[in-house]
Design brief:
With about 120 residues, the chain is mainly alpha-helical. Helix content is about 60%, strand content about 0%. The protein folds into two domains: about 5-80, no CATH class; about 90-125, no CATH class.
Length: about 120
């Protein structure tokens, strides 16, 4: 199947459906990434409240699901064509192209008063 055979609307709909499953609230699903993260962080919280040491594997697994949720958020960002900077990504997470897009947008928004070295708007005297 070539890329020409793919219906963009159908592909977007399928991607959205898949992402919905990953983001399901724990009350709706015990298998979603969000539900697993909530379950693991809850067990860590309970151990701490009891004065116990949390299980290392719970922390390891929770970190895994945090990364999974971040990955899914990146997929939503890409699905709608947004620059990750606009959805909370850090500067170091952006590609050179994405950084250039933000810098150009800032130049257009703030005019020529931006110092190219610092990216800070220069004050008029």
């Amino acid at each position: 199947m070539s890329g020409e055979d793919v219906d963009p609307e159908k592909a977007e709909s399928l991607a959205c459906d898949c992402l919905v499953e990953y983001f399901r609230h724990p009350a709706e699903s015990t298998r979603s990434d969000v539900a697993r993260l909530a379950e693991l962080t809850s067990s860590i919280k309970v151990a701490l409240e009891r004065g116990e040491t949390p299980e290392k594997h719970n922390i390891e697994e929770a970190r895994f699901y945090i990364r999974q949720v971040e990955k899914r958020l990146d997929e939503v960002t890409a699905l709608f064509g947004w620059n990750p900077w606009d959805t909370g990504a850090t500067w170091s997470e952006l590609t050179d192209e994405q950084q250039a897009e933000i810098e150009e947008r800032d130049r257009q928004r703030l005019g020529d008063d931006i110092d190219p070295e610092t990216g800070i708007k220069e004050e008029c005297e």
